[in-house]
Structure formats: C-alpha cells, structure tokens
C-alpha cells in the first residue's frame, strides 16, 4: 500500500512538472528583414512583430557583431473586419553592416511580465557590390492616397481554381489582399462584376504572412465559390476592396529635419514621433480573369436529372416503419458531398400511390442539403415507402451518376375507428384509485395526433347566409304551396270562379289567333273567329252556355249585371258586325277589322276589371 | 440562468398567443400560408420531444393563419400546461370545449388544470333551472351542431306541413308527427338561444396572470375589492382604456388590468 502511494506521488509530481513546463513554454514572436542580400554601405530594415498586442516594448537587440543596429520606432496595425479586431505591433530597426559576410540575426529571447519570448532567426548576406533590391522612396508614403504610389505596398490579387467549368459547377475563387508595413483598417468584403455568374458570398478571411519578391506581406485571403449560369466565355472581375489606409501627414520641416526625414529606411513607425496619421479611403482593384462555361453534356443524361453538378452521396431513411393508417411517416433524404447545392433538388420518388403527400421541408447547410417529406398512408395495404432516385453530373469524371435508394418496407396497421377515451369524465379528486385500492397517477392526457377538419376562424354555420336562407326560403315556399293548393281546391269546387279563370285564358289565346287572321285579310274567317271568341268569353264569364248567347241575350244579361252602357253597346255592335260579315257578305276593309279587334280587346279588358 | 431564459421565452410565447387571439381575420389571411397539417405535425413532433416552447410556437402559427380547430386548442393547452402556464392552458381548453365539447380527453384535462388551481367549473351553474337543464342536455354539442339539429327539425316540420297541405287526410291521421317535430325544433331553438347567449353575447374570460387584484375603480390606486388567481374564470363586462370590468361567478364585479384576462 505504501509502495503504491509512493508511486502515485511520483506520477503526480511528474505530471505537475510536465504541466508547469508546458505553462512556462516560450511565447513566440517573429523577426523579418526587408531584404536578405545587400551591399556594404546600404541599410536594411528589421521588423520584430508581436500579434494580439500593441503594448509590447521594443526588445534590445542592438548588440549584434558586425552590424550597426538602431531602433527606429514601433509600427502598429489594426484590422477591423466584420466587427472582429486583430492587432499587432512591429518594432522597426535600421541595420547597417560594418563588414562583408553572412550574418545570423536571432533567435532572440527575452522575458516580459514573467513570460519568456523567443523568436525565429533570419540571415543577411552582405556583398561588396550593390545587389540588393532598391528601397522604397519616402515620397511613396507621403501625401494623399491618390498621390501615393502604393502599388508594391498594398495590392489585390484575384484567382480562380479553374478557368473552364460546366454550367452550375462550383468554381473556387480567391481574393488576396497584400499589405506591406501599412496601417490598414475598415477593410470591406471584396466585390466584383459577376454577370452570368451566381451571387458571391465570402466566408471569413484567413490572415497569414507571405514573402513575395523579397518583401514580407500581411495577407488577408478571402475565399468563395461561384458557378456559371449561362454557357459562354466571360471575364470575372476585377475584384474591388474598399479600405482605409493610415498615412502619416507631412509636417513643415527645416533643413536639418529634412535630412532626417529623408532617411530612406524610415518606416511608418518612425513618423509616430514627428507626424500624425491621416485616414485615406482607398478602393483597390485586381486584374480580371477569363472563364469559359461549358454546357452539361446531353448524351447519357438521365430522365430525372434536375441540374445538380458535383460529387454527392445520398442517404435515405424512413421513420417510423410501423404505424397506423393516417399516421405520418417521415422520409429523410440527405445529400452530402462537394458541389453546388443550389441546384440540388429533392430526389424523385417513383410512386406515391396510397399516400397523402405534403410539401417537403428543405434545410441547406455547408456541404449538405436535407429534404424531409411527410407521407401519410391512406390504406393498410401499403407495404413500403417509395424508391428515391437522385441523379447528378460529376464534372471531374465528366459522367452522369444516379443513386437509387429504397424502397423501404413499412408496416401499416388499420387505424382506430374512434380513439377510445383514456379518461371518462373529469378527473376526480387529488388521487385516483385503482381496482385494488392502489393510488393511480394523475396527469394530463396526451396531445391529439391528427387535427381533424380545419375551419377558418369566425366561419360558423349559424352565422352564414345559408343558415338564414334555410330558415326563410322553405317557409316562403310552404306559404306559396299553401296558396297554390287553396286556389286549386277553389277551382275544383267553385265553377263560377273556374269559369272566370278559363274565360280570360281562352280569350287571350283566341285574341292571338285573331291577330294572324287580321294579317291574312280574310274578313269572313276573321269575323267568325271574333264571334266565337266573344260568345265563349261571355259564356265562361257569365256562367251560361256559350252556344245560347246572341246579341240580345248578351245585352240583357250584361245590363242586368250593371255593366256600363258603352260596353254593352260595343258588345252589341260587335255581334252585329260579325253577323253582317258572316251572312250578308259584307266585305269590311282592314281598318274596320283592326278597329273591331281593338273594340273586342276593350270589352274583354273592361269585363275583367269589373269582375262581374 | 437557463431557467430565467425559459421563463422569458414562455412569457413571450404567451404574448404572441394573446396577439394571435386578438388578430383580425383579415390580418390572419395576410399571414404566410403554410400547410396547416405540416405545422400541426411539426408541433406534435416538438411536443413529443418535450420541446414545449417550440411546439406551442408551431401551433400558434396555425392560429396566425386564422384557423379554428378544437384539437389544435387542446394541444396548445397541453403545451401551456407543460410550461406551467395554467391560465393560458385553461383558456385554450375552454376555447377547445366550444368546438369539441364531447371530447372526454378535453374534459379530463380541463378538470385536471382546474384542479391545479382548486377551482371547480362554476360556469355551468345558473339560477334558472330551464337554462341549467338545457345546458346539461346539450353539453356534448357545440353551437354549430345545435344549430344543425334545429335547422334539420325545422325543415322536417315544414316538409310534414307541406304533405299535410297536399293531402289533408294525412294531417288528420299523422298530425302528432308535426307536433313532435315542432317540439324538437322548439327544444333545439331554445338550446341554441341559451348557448348562443352564454358563448357569444356573454363574454367569458380567464385570468392569465399569477395574482390579479380586482379593484373598485379602473384606477391603479383604487381599493382592492378581491383577488383572482391564474386560471379563474370571469365574465368580461366591458373594456376601457387598458382596464377590463369583470364579474366573478358569485356576482361580484371589479376592474382588472386588460392584460390580466383573455377572452375565451
């Protein structure tokens, strides 16, 4: 036991020591030279950079054999991108070699606030002849942004991973911002001309350092992907980035000071002590690039191909696989892989007979697109969910590929006729009692599985016009039916009433016939018809046999029933005219016939109004 | 901390729910149209996953679409009860009981929710015995169903009367059929009237806040008359400038803040 505890103590000590060593591990900082080769008598610039801080003091590195090292000053850099701030400080030193040879600079080590810092190392080769890169002129960092010639100090590069692609194929695009010892802030996301290409959305940029043509640059790399929407040759770009460059403002100088400021190795940090910085907005432009967009080949294209281009995997699942009629089964279709997910549509289901289908839900993530399709089996004869087919074009192999998944077997049972109630009536008391006096738990009953019929709020039957119509209309119909039946009964039982109704109907019908006879001009036939009409009408109206009605009989009866004398005279005249035309061979002209027809109408109209 | 965030979410949900109740039909029609069945099943899915906040959110979207459905109110009630909002749960159950009054699950859950606040349903009590009898007889029917029965009895009565007019001999032999139909129609019409008065004319409400003081006047500094608890049923008499005049079922009236009670 004692031995074990001793071993444990030793293990703990070793672990603690290892942890302490790890905690006390040196922090890194970087040194960089603006040139690695130079001639004797020239000057180089050494930068010592610390990231994530701007308060780190300048380390003392002036004691390097063969080199005259002088501290120039600090240069700070702050980048604000999408609200994220990154800071750094670079302490600048002027280095002048005192002899020819190859010098090792670094690694440097020092302690600050309990932390140990170590750097990388760099080499400087000093030759007799002038072989170094020409240094930047101080004028290049003075004046306004427009006047500045910052071509080597800050610039933009646009590049694409491929220059020929298919329609809808993703083309990775990179925009790199190179900055060499300049204070740059408020960097906007890149924009560029993209006609016939998809919309550009840049991801978070990467930040790193890169040496280019002997100069060390801070690089901000923006990456995105685009795809061509039309076939053809296009120019992409130029890419543009807006930012602010902090430029030291020149101060009035005297001759002595000018000599100092004209020091060609004086970096922006040197101005910190003598000049203030001004912010100049800049728009950087890259060169444009050529892109050729080809059509997706027509040969071998599957029927269900819907435009997906890339390299994908397709996972298909159904849940639950045991259910009742009317319960939903959820199909999940996940498309993973590389490619353009904008053109990935839901895989096609071969048949959905026996299912009720709802609109699928679509969820797009990076390198993944999920489709959720709810199906509801309508019968228990359904045994499987349909097969799903997804086709795409692989631009690397230049071939169409089809992934076929399913069908997946499911078991559908008959649904309940009517869900039996789980609790009958309101839940009683604080505790329910079981059969043998056991205490039963008490909680709410589960939610409803299906919604039943939907109804618009406020749309109720008893407030609808139909409800009012069903009350009023049948009542009116019943009243009308009652009135009709009463009339029919009276016609059946009251012959006088029936005769009056028939008289008018018959007269109206015969008057129409008279009109035709008048047109034909056959006077004899016309007056015979007039006679019959008058005789029938008066017979029905006065409830006496029509054949017995003559001029005298009519005059007597009408006078007895208190009919207007003028009308009686008209009746008499009509009978007489009819007799003359029928028996005396008188030939009345058309005007006379029209007048007599008019008189007959007046007589019938009058007698209808009088209701004799 | 998480507890407070959940509580805040529930409060926001309750506010959204209240707004959904208050929204007019026209504004509801302007809402984004989604498949109601899909939303309902999504809500059920969240409920089963015990994410009651999301479940209620999905259900409330259906209310925003201007939909009225008994099962929907029932499920929302369950969601609110799980979230501890007894007042809103009872409110939803009462709304559901106007649409699916025959549902025994609903009756059980409403009784359970009321038992949590020690309140038996006193809404059914009425001093007029005819009203009480009629309410009891039609307790399993909603207003639309009673109206349907009334109209059916009425149409059958008119049909029988028409037959009697057509053939009066039938009237002498089967006149009692018309009398029976007339009685059925009258009973249904009476039931409809009583229920319509109780549900549409009289505005019932539910207290949805924890502890509510009913005051003598609609003034903050007014004397408190009595106190109401979350889930208590009241009758809303009128609404005025951020206050509601309410009557308790024992007849005592008072003024409460408008947001303290929601109309059924």
Structural features, described:
- The complex is a heterodimer of chains A (612) and B (264).
- Chain A folds into four domains: 23-127, Immunoglobulin-like (Sandwich), CATH 2.60.40; 138-292, Immunoglobulin-like (Sandwich); 308-413, Sandwich (Immunoglobulin-like); 493-610, Four Helix Bundle (Hemerythrin (Met), subunit A), CATH 1.20.120.
- Chain A is built from eight helices and 35 strands.
- In chain A, strands 4-5-3-1-8-7 form a six-stranded mixed sheet, with no helix packed on it. In chain A, strands 21, 23, 25, 26 and 27 form a five-stranded antiparallel sheet that branches. Chain A has a four-stranded antiparallel sheet with strand order 10-12-16-15, with no helix packed on it.
- The longest helix of chain A is centred in the last third of the chain and has 29 residues, at 465-493.
- Residues 11-25, 131-148, 251-274 and 417-433 of chain A have low confidence and may be disordered.
- Chain B has 264 residues and is an alpha+beta fold.
- Chain B has three domains: 2-116, Serine Threonine Protein Phosphatase 5, Tetratricopeptide repeat; 129-201; 203-263, Roll (SH3 type barrels), CATH 2.30.30.40.
- Chain B is built from ten helices and eight strands.
- Strand 35 (455-456) of chain A pairs antiparallel with strand 1 (67-68) of chain B, so a sheet runs across the interface.
């Amino acid at each position: 036991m004692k031995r074990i505890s001793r071993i444990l103590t030793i293990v703990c000590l070793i672990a603690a020591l290892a942890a302490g060593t790890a905690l006390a591990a040196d922090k890194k900082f970087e040194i960089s030279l603006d040139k690695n080769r130079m001639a004797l008598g020239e000057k180089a610039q050494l930068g010592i950079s610390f990231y994530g801080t701007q308060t780190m003091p300048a380390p003392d590195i002036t004691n390097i054999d063969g080199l005259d090292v002088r501290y120039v000053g600090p240069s700070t850099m702050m980048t604000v991108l999408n609200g994220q701030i990154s800071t750094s400080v670079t302490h600048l030193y002027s280095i002048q070699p005192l002899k020819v040879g190859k010098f090792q600079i670094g690694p440097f080590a020092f302690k600050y606030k309990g932390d140990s810092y170590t750097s990388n190392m760099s080499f400087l080769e000093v030759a007799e002849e002038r072989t170094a890169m020409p240094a930047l002129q101080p004028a290049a960092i003075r004046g306004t942004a427009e006047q500045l010639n910052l071509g080597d100090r800050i610039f933009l590069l646009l590049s694409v991973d491929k220059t020929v692609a298919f329609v809808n194929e993703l083309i990775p695009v990179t925009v790199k911002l190179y900055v060499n010892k300049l204070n740059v802030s408020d960097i906007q996301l890149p924009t560029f001309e993209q006609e016939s290409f998809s919309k550009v959305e840049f991801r978070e940029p990467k930040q790193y350092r890169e040496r280019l043509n002997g100069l060390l640059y801070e690089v901000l790399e923006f990456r995105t992907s685009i795809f061509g929407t039309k076939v053809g040759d296009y120019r992409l770009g130029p890419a543009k980035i807006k930012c602010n460059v902090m430029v030291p403002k020149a101060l009035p100088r005297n001759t002595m000071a000018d000599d100092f400021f004209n020091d060609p190795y004086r970096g922006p940090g040197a101005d910190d002590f003598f000049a203030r910085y001004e912010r100049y907005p800049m728009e950087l432009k890259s060169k444009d690039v050529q892109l050729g967009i080809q059509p997706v080949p027509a040969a071998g294209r599957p029927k269900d191909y819907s435009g997906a281009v890339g390299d994908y995997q397709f996972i298909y699942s159904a849940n639950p696989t045991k259910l009742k009629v009317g319960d939903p089964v959820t199909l999940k279709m996940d498309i993973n892989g590389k490619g353009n997910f904008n053109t990935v549509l839901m895989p096609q289901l071969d048949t959905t007979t026996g299912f009720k289908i709802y609109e699928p839900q679509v969820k797009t993530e990076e390198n993944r697109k999920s489709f959720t399709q709810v199906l509801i089996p309508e019968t228990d004869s359904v045994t499987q969910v349909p097969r799903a087919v997804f086709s795409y074009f692989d631009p690397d192999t230049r071939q169409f590929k089809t992934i076929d998944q399913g069908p997946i077997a499911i078991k559908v049972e008959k649904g309940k006729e009517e869900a039996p109630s789980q609790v009958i009536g309101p839940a009683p008391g604080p505790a329910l009692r079981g059969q043998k006096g056991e205490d039963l738990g008490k909680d709410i009953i589960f939610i409803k599985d299906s919604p039943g019929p939907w109804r618009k709020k406020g749309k109720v039957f008893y407030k609808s016009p139909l409800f009012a119509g069903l009350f009023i209309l049948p009542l009116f119909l019943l009243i009308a039916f009652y009135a009709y039946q009463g009339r029919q009964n009276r016609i059946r039982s009251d012959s006088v009433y029936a005769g009056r109704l028939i008289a008018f109907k018959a007269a109206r019908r015969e008057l129409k016939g008279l009109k035709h006879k008048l047109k034909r001009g056959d006077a004899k036939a016309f007056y015979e018809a007039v006679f019959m009409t008058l005789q029938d009408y008066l017979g029905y109206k006065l409830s006496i046999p029509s054949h017995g009605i003559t001029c005298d009989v009519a005059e007597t009866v009408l006078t007895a029933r208190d009919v207007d004398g003028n009308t009686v005279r008209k009746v008499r005249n009509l009978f007489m005219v009819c007799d003359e035309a029928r028996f005396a061979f008188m030939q009345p002209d058309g005007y006379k016939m029209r007048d007599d027809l008019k008189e007959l109408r007046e007589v019938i109209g009058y007698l209808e109004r009088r209701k004799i | 901390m998480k507890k407070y965030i959940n509580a805040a979410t529930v409060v926001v949900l309750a506010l959204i729910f209240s707004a959904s109740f208050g929204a007019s039909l026209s504004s509801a029609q302007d809402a984004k149209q989604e498949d109601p069945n899909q939303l309902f099943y999504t809500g059920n899915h969240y409920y089963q996953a015990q994410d009651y906040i999301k479940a209620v959110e999905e259900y409330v979207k259906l209310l925003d679409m201007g939909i009225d459905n008994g099962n929907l109110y029932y499920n929302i009630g369950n969601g609110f009860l799980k979230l501890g909002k007894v007042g809103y749960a009872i409110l939803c159950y009462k709304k559901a009981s106007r649409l699916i009054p025959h549902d025994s699950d609903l009756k059980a859950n409403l009784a359970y929710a009321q038992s949590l606040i020690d309140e038996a349903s006193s809404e059914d009590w009425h001093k007029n015995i005819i009203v009480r009898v009629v309410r009891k007889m039609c307790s399993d029917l909603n207003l639309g169903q009673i109206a349907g029965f009334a109209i059916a009895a009425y149409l059958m009565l008119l049909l029988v009367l028409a037959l009697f007019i057509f053939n009066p001999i039938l009237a002498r032999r089967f006149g009692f059929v018309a009398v029976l139909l007339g009685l059925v129609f009258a009973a249904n019409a009476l039931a409809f009237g009583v229920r319509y008065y109780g549900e549409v004319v009289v505005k019932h409400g539910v207290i949805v806040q924890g502890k509510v003081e009913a005051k003598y006047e609609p003034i903050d500094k007014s004397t408190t008359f009595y106190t109401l608890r979350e889930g208590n049923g009241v009758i809303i008499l009128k609404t005025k400038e951020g206050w509601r005049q309410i009557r308790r079922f024992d007849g005592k009236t008072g003024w409460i803040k408008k947001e303290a009670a929601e109309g059924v």
